[in-house]
Each structure stands twice: as structure tokens, then as C-alpha cells.
Write a structure and sequence with these properties.
GO terms for molecular function: diaminopimelate decarboxylase activity. Its cofactor is pyridoxal 5'-phosphate. Helix content is 33%, strand content 19%. By secondary structure, it is of the alpha/beta class. The protein folds into 2 domains: 138 residues, Lyase, Ornithine Decarboxylase, Chain A, domain 1 (Beta Barrel), CATH 2.40.37; 267 residues, TIM Barrel, CATH 3.20.20.10. Bound molecules: pyridoxal-5'-phosphate.
Length: 441
């Protein structure tokens, strides 16, 4: 039996190229001192988690409001130090728990949504400033945006979508605020946005649509370990709008530079494991070493803010002053949830089984990503090899190949910190119910 979500070829190729990039960076090992400091920080908070485990006696997603608020403030401060006119929209898909969005709305964030369901959720949360982006919006979804045009801006993905939205807006007697999404020239994905070569014509056409008020441009690049992809895209947009007429530029009120900011800890990776659960060699890595971890370092937010500001000032503000918008997801919510599990069984070879399965996070994350598993019941700054598996009837149900602690036994409480991004939203109704979400006291 396998998960019904298997990474596509494209995802796999992407993962492979990231492992290769990682190997090019020095030796690509996650420094032991960094890892120990990280683990120690969570062990010092162990009582809070042990109390929750004792009270609830079941696997939990622990919602960490304080950490989320801290990251929201850090994000705003870093960019606020550079940009005088900027707005942040939280990408709801990265963690769609209502409390996460609500907390960020309270911190002054707008919401970035990608479907009718997400528009409805955003409106129900009381969000006043919602941007709706994404390919293939249906008429029904567009109509929802038209009906709520005071609170929702549509970032249009194609000329076809522009036609349909204009028609729906005119029928409703409304004028909808819109932006145009651009396909970043370097992007491997052509399914998002309009090619730069067609941008000028698309902009002019939007200006002629009576149902639309065209205001801005948007792009999004993923997995930004550093700002280079964003800077290249900003430069390309600058060259394009440098050719625009004053009438075209006069309408440009915002440039939305998307999200994709990688958390500063970098990308932590396990050696790779095949679909059959066997350790394999990937891109020349000697992978049969559960205590070795690899990482691709990421830049600090200050470096992102400074580089992006420089790029925008050089390539955009020189032509037209405008508001800068951002759509962070992962960077904000990664530390907003932690997973708390209980060891149920221990097999002859030492393998342990937990009460939760990885349906809790919806994909085979820990076959690729390294997330330290902390044994809160027997804490020690010592990592031991041990297969930690969930209780689903599939061998892909892996939490990790090691734990931090003195020992591991049935009844122990395990913590996997910082599992807030692209986990909770992807949880599956597969064999087990996903864990409940409990707020950290
Ligand atoms: C997913 C997404 C984001 C957020 O990406 P993160 O990597 O979580 O920061 C922002 N904008 C758009 C359009 C997206 O699709």
C-alpha cells in the first residue's frame, strides 16, 4: 500500500537538483553545533510539551502562537527597515489552520489565497485585504471575487482569465481591482502567469477592460535560499516596464514579489530513501548514515530585504515609484506548529512505532527532509540511530532514522519541532484521523 500522494517526476527532479546544489556548497553537512543548539532549545521547554502529552494522551499538533507572532514581527521589521510603502499577505496554503491566519491578520497581514474555498475562509476570518492568485480560476471562483471586490483583488493568470473576469464584473456592474501575474523568466514552471514578452500587450488590454482596474504586477519564485531568483526577475521586469508609455506606467500602483523565503536555518535533509523504503545513493551521496545530515544554508531576512530593496530601487523605482507587496508563507508558519507523538511499540530490531502516522502531514516528508525527533521523556544531547515509524499500513510512514535522547521505549513522548509549513494543510484522511490542534499555554 502506498500513499495516494506520490511526488511527481518534476518534484523529484527538483529535489535532486537541490541535493546537487547542496553538495556544491562546501561539504553540505549540517554542522553538529548548530544542530545541538537547536535541539537543546526545545529540550529546555520540555515541561510544557510533557504536560500537554499527559493531559491529552494522543498525538497533537501544538500551535505556537508566540513563535508565529515573533516571526510576523521579524518579517515586518526586516522589510520595514528598507521599504517605506509595503504590504505583506500571508500565503494561507502554507498552513490553513484558521488560528494561524487570524493571528497574522491581527498582526496587520493581508491574506494571499488560491481558490474559492480559500477566498471564503479568508472572508469568514474577517480579512479586509485579500489577494486571489493562482492558475485556472473557475467562473464560480472569479464571481466570488467580483461579489467581494471591496475586499478581494484578483491577480490574473492569463488573458483568458482576464476576459472572463471582465465579463463577470461588467455583468455585476462592478469594477474589480486586479494585477497581472508574470511567469518568472527563470521558472521551470510555465503554468503560472503571463510570459514577460506578452506583458505589455496584456497590460494595455486590461486597461481597456471596463470591469477591471489594473493596478499591479505579481510574480512568485519558490525555494529562495537566497534572493538571486527574485533579483533576476525584478531586473527583467524593470527592463520590460522601462519600455512602457506614461499611460501604462501611470496605472502601476504595486509590484508583488511573492513569497518563497526559506527559513534562515536552511534546508535540512536526510540522505535519500527509495520509494520501497530502502536507502539509496542519490547524486553520489553515501547515504547509509542515519546520523549524518545535510543542509543547504539560507540567507537571513536582512540580506533578503537589503538585496530586494536594492534591486527594486535600481530596476523599478527608477521608472515608477510603487508599493511593494510580499506573500510569505513558509517563513512565517514553519515554527507555528510542533508535532507531539507517543511511542506505542518497539520491535525486536529496535524500530519504534508511534501513535500518529504521517497522514498527519500528508506526504513522505521525512524520507527527504531531516527534522530532529526529540525524546522528551529521556532527554539527552545525544543522537541515536533508530527507525521511528508511524502506525499506518505503509512503509513510507517514516518520522526519522534517529532520535535525540538517552534511550527510547514505549510510553515515551516525542517532539518534532517546527512542523508548521506544508504539513497541517496537506494532512490526509488516510487510515488514521489527523492529530488535533492544541494551543501552547
Ligand atoms: C505558495 C505561494 C506562496 C508562499 O510560498 P512560501 O514558499 O510558503 O513562502 C506565495 N505566493 C504564491 C503565489 C504561492 O503560490
Amino acid at each position: 500500500m502506498t500513499f495516494d500522494f506520490t511526488p511527481s517526476q518534476a518534484t523529484f527532479r527538483d529535489a535532486l537538483s537541490r541535493v546537487e546544489a547542496m553538495l556544491r556548497h562546501k561539504d553540505g553537512r549540517l554542522p553538529g553545533a548548530v544542530l545541538k543548539a537547536y535541539v537543546e532549545r526545545f529540550f529546555t521547554m520540555k515541561e510544557v510539551f510533557l504536560d500537554l502529552a499527559e493531559v491529552h494522551q494522543e498525538p497533537l499538533y501544538v500551535l505556537d502562537h508566540a513563535n508565529l507572532k515573533k516571526h510576523a514581527a521579524m518579517f515586518k521589521n526586516a522589510f520595514g527597515a528598507c521599504f517605506s510603502d509595503f504590504a505583506c499577505y500571508y500565503a494561507m496554503k502554507s498552513n490553513n489552520h484558521p488560528e494561524v491566519s487570524r493571528t497574522l491578520i491581527d498582526q496587520g497581514f493581508g491574506l494571499d489565497v488560491s481558490s474559492g474555498v480559500e477566498v471564503e475562509r479568508a472572508l469568514a476570518l474577517g480579512a479586509e485585504d485579500v489577494i486571489f492568485s493562482g492558475p485556472g480560476k473557475t467562473d464560480k471562483e472569479l464571481f466570488l471575487a467580483v461579489e467581494n471586490s471591496g475586499r478581494v483583488k484578483v491577480l490574473m493568470d492569463s488573458l483568458g482569465e482576464m476576459d472572463r473576469l471582465n465579463r463577470l464584473a461588467m455583468q455585476a456592474g462592478k469594477r474589480v481591482r486586479v494585477g497581472l501575474r508574470i511567469t518568472p523568466p527563470s521558472s521551470p514552471w510555465k503554468k503560472f502567469g503571463v510570459a514577460l514578452a506578452n506583458l505589455g500587450a496584456a497590460w494595455k488590454k486590461a486597461q481597456e477592460c471596463p470591469g477591471l482596474e489594473i493596478q499591479g504586477l505579481q510574480f512568485h519564485t519558490s525555494w529562495n535560499l537566497d534572493p538571486s531568483q527574485q533579483v533576476r526577475t525584478i531586473a527583467a521586469i524593470g527592463r520590460e516596464i522601462g519600455q512602457w508609455s506614461p499611460e501604462m506606467l501611470g496605472a502601476l500602483k504595486f509590484l508583488d514579489i511573492g513569497g518563497g523565503y526559506w527559513p534562515q536555518a536552511g534546508e535540512w535533509q536526510v540522505h535519500a530513501v527509495t520509494q520501497a523504503g530502502q536507502v539509496m545513493k542519490l547524486a553520489g551521496l553515501d547515504v547509509d548514515r542515519p546520523l549524518e545530515h545535510y543542509y543547504a544554508p539560507a540567507q537571513s531576512l536582512d540580506v533578503f530585504a537589503q538585496s530586494l530593496y536594492q534591486a527594486v530601487e535600481t530596476h523599478i523605482f527608477s521608472t515608477v515609484p510603487c508599493r511593494i507587496c510580499m506573500e510569505p508563507g513558509r517563513w512565517l508558519c514553519n515554527g507555528a506548529m510542533h508535532l507531539l507523538l507517543n511511542v506505542v511499540d518497539k520491535k525486536d530490531g529496535g524500530l519504534v512505532i508511534t501513535d500518529a502516522g504521517t497522514n498527519a502531514i500528508g506526504w513522505e516528508r521525512y524520507e527527504m527532509d531531516y527534522a530532529p525527533v526529540l525524546n522528551l521523556s529521556r532527554p539527552a544531547l545525544d543522537e541515536k540511530a533508530c527507525e521511528i515509524m508511524g502506525s499506518l499500513c505503509t512503509p513510507h510512514d517514516l518520522w526519522g532514522l534517529s532520535y535525540w535522547g538517552q534511550d527510547i521505549q514505549p510510553g515515551d513522548v516525542l517532539l518534532i519541532p517546527d512542523q508548521g509549513a506544508y504539513t497541517y494543510s496537506l494532512k490526509q484522511d488516510f487510515i488514521k484521523a489527523p492529530p488535533r490542534v492544541i494551543s501552547m499555554p
